[in-house]
Amino acid sequence: MSRKLRILCSHINCDYEVIYNGFSWVSDGRRPYVIIRKKAGSKYISTYRPFSSALKKSIETKPNCIICRYSSFIAFGKKLDFTLICRAEITGENTVEFSLKAENETGYDIQAVYFPAPFNSKNKGKVSYHVDAMRQGFLMPDGYKENFLSTFGFAHYLRRINTGDCYMPVWGRVCDGNGFSAIVETPYDACMFSSFGRHASFVNSVHWMSSLGKLSYERKIRFTFHSEKCDYNTIAKDFRNYLIEKGKLKTIDDKIKENENIKKLIGCPVLHHKIFSTIQPASKFYDKNSTNQKLYASFEKRAVQMQELKKAGLEKLYIHTDGWGALGYDNLHPYILPPCKEAGGWEGMKALSDTCRSLGYIFALHDQYRDYYYASKYFDMDKAVMKIDSSHPYCSTWDGGEHTFLCASQALEFVKKTYTELEEHGVDVQGAYLDVFSVVNGDECFNPKHKITREESIKHRASCFEYLNKKGLIMSSEEPASQLIDSICLVHHGPFTLRPQENGAAVGIPVPLLSLVYHDCVMIPWDWWNNWGIPKGEKGELYCAMHAGMPYLHCFGEENFKIGKDNRSADIELLDEHSLKDELNRIKPLTELQEKLYNKEMVRHEFLDGKRVQRTIYSDGTTVTADFQKGTWTIGSLNND
User: Fold this and answer.
1) Contact status, residue 365 vs residue 324, Cβ threshold 8 Å
2) Of 24, 218, 208, 232, residue with least CA distance to 119
3) Half-sphere exposure of residue 256, counting CA atoms within 13 Å on the CB side?
4) 34: Cβ–Cβ under 8 A, 6 or more apart, which residues?
5) pLDDT above 70 covers what percent of the chain?
6) For residue 281, which of 377, 401, 375, 398 has the smallest C-alpha distance?
7) C-alpha distance from residue 63 to each of 7, 89, 91, 618 (Å)
8) First CA to last CA across the chain, in angstroms?
C-alpha cells in the first residue's frame, strides 16, 4: 500500500520497528504485559506477566500486516485458556493500526493489557519531545528536568483517557521534524501509561482495562506518521481531522442550531458565586475547632448585587450558582431540594432567577448526579455503582461527607425530578452545570439490575445533558474532556497541568493542544480563583486572550477565608465603585475578543521568543500575541504580523 512505510516485528517480546520515509521508530520504555486476575474469597487478586513469559508465541506475516499470538500464560499455579492476538497493519500511505483482542476468555482472568510498547526515535535527535493531552496539553522535551518529580510520578501512574488526566485520546512524539500522532480509537476502557525511554525521553502507550471483567472487544490505536515539519500543532490537527473524518466534530454553531439560547454566551463573562456551605463531620474538610457552616449571601442579597452590576454597565453575565440546595454546596446529592432555607428558600430563589432574567443575565445552577450521599433522603445502595467484587465505591472527601457513586443509568430519573420541581415552583433556570460528568471516567456497574459498561455510563450521562438541552437550558460541566464535549457548550475551566494544580509550577511546557482541536466547539472561561490551572507567576488574563476565552468576573472584594480546613473565596460583598469599574474595563476587551473568535478554529500556536512570547492564529487570520515578560497581549492580523 505504501512504499514509504514498513513494519518489522520481533514476536518474542512484541518489539516493533516502523520505518516511514527512511526514519525509524522503535519500541522503547515499558514492554507489553498482561495483568491476570483471580478471585480469592470475596476479593480479587492479580499478578503481572510480560508477553515474553507466554509459553506459546507465534507470528504470521501478511501483505502490510503482522499478527502475533501469545497464549499459555501461567499464573496462580495454572495455565490459562486465553490467547492475546496483536495486529499491526498498514492502513494508508502514512498510517498504521495496532489492535488487540483476546480469544477463549473463559472467565474474569484478564484485568488489563499494555500494548503496544511506546515508540521512540531509533536515533537521538537535536529537538525531540513528547506531546501530551493531559488537561490543555504539554510538551516534554527529552532530558527536561523542571518539575521532574511530577514527570517521574506520571511514569508510575495510570491516567484514564477522557478525564482531567488526559482530555483527548491522543498523544504524539516529534524528532527533528519527523513525528507521529497516536489516536486511541477505543478510548472508554483505556489509560495512558507513560515511562522513560532512550535519550532521556518521556514516552507513552496504552493500558487497556477490562470491561465488565473481560477484554471483551478489539482495542485499536491509529498511528499517523509524518516526515517533514511535524510539530505539536500537527499532532492536534491529526486528531481534529480524525474527528471530522468520523463525523464527530460538533461545533458551537452546530450546538446553537439545536439550542438558540447558547447564543447568549457569546461575548459573555462568567461569575462564579456561592450561597451556602455546610461541612459534615465525616468530610476531610471538617474542623471541630473551626466554622463549618457559612451563609455567603441570601438569594435576595444576590439579586440586589446583580442589579448593581447592571447599573455599573455590565450588559451580559453568565451566573454559576453554587450552594443553592438545602444544605448548600456538595451536600445531599443527587436530590438537594428544597432550596436553602437560610438563603430564602423557594421564594428567594425564584426572585433571584426572575431578577437575572429581567437584567438579561443567565441564571445557572451547579448540580451533581454522580456523588451519591448517604444522607440523601433518596439514598438506596441498590442504585449505586457495584464493583466486580460486589462492593461499592466509597468517598468522604467533599463537604457532604460519606457517599458512593450513583450508577449513571439511574441519574436521569433524579435530573427529571429536580428540574420538574424547579419549574413547578417558578424558578427560571437558564443553565445547568452537571458537575464531574465531563471530566471523570465512565463508571462500569456490575449490579445485575442495571449492569453497564463505562461507555454506556457516558451515554447515560449524555442523556441527562440532552434532556435539559431540549428544554432550552445551557449545558455545562467541569472540564472539556472529549467524551462529552458534544453534549455541552461550556465548561468551568480548561486548565494546564500544574503541581500543585492551584498556583503550582507547570508540568512540561504548556501548549493549547485541546484548543487547537476544540476551540470552536466549546466555550472555556479563564482566570478562575487563585490562579488554578495557570502556571505560577503568569497572568491568567493572557491565556484567556490567547485562547479567545470567556473571562471570569472578579467582582467580590474580600480576601479568601477558611471554612473548616479549606481555604475558599469569600464571595460576599461587591467591590467598591471604582474597583468594580476597573474590573469591568479589564474584561471588556476580552469579551469582545471572545465574541469575534468564539466560532473560529485555532489553527496554530507558536513560541516567538522562547516561552515568554506566544502567539495563536485563528482561521479568519486574526492573531493574538501574549508577552508573558511584559504581561501584555495584542490582537493582530496574519497579513500584518
Assistant:
1) yes
2) 24
3) 14
4) 48, 49, 51, 70, 73, 84, 110, 112, 113, 114
5) 99
6) 401
7) 11, 9, 11, 42
8) 42
Q: Please name the amino acid found at residue 468.
A: L
Contacts of 153 (CB under 8 A, 6+ apart): none
Q: Which three cell numbers stand for residue 7?
A: 513494519
Residue 233 CB partners (closer than 8 Å, separation 6+): 516, 604, 605
**Residue from 528, 541, 534, 633 nearest 586 by CA:** 541
d(CA 179, CA 164): 25
The DSSP H or E segment spanning 622 is strand 622-627
Q: What is the distance between the alpha carbons of residues 628 and 633, in angstroms, rounded to a whole number?
A: 8
* Strand boundaries in 91-237, DSSP class E: 95-103, 110-114, 119-121, 128-132, 138-141, 159-160, 170-175, 178-184, 190-197, 201-209, 219-226
pLDDT, tens digit (0-9, with 9 covering 90-100), for 581-604: 999 999 999 999 999 999 999 999
Please check whether residue 509 is in contact with residue 141, taking contact to mean a CB–CB distance below 8 angstroms.
yes
Task: State the cell numbers at 415.
Answer: 435530573
Q: What angle do CA 286, 288, 289 make, to 5 degrees?
A: 120
- Percent helix / strand / coil, the chain, rounded to 5: 25, 35, 40
The three grid cell numbers given for residue 11, joined into one nine-digit string: 514476536
What is the distance between the alpha carbons of residues 337 and 339, in angstroms, rounded to a whole number?
A: 5
C-alpha cell of residue 110:
484478564
**What are the pLDDT digits (tens) for 178-224?**
999 999 999 999 999 999 999 999 999 999 999 999 999 999 999 99
Distance CA 127, CA 114 (A): 28
The HSE-up count of residue 293 (CA atoms within 13 Å, CB side) is 10
pTM of structure: 0.96
Q: How far apart are CA 516 and CA 603, in angstroms?
A: 6
Q: What ranges make up the beta strands (E) of 253-292?
A: 270-274, 276-278
Sequence-ordered strand ranges (E) for 51-188: 56-62, 65-71, 74-75, 78-79, 83-90, 95-103, 110-114, 119-121, 128-132, 138-141, 159-160, 170-175, 178-184
Which residue in the block uniquely carries the three cell numbers 501469545?
A: 70
Question: CA-to-CA distance for 167 and 134, rounded, in angstroms?
Answer: 6
Whether the CB-CB separation of 158 and 207 falls below 8 Å is answered with yes
Letter string b/e over residues 533-556, b meaning 16 or more CB atoms within 10 A of that residue's CB = bbbeebbbbbbbbbbbbbbbbbbb
The letter for the amino acid at 227 is S
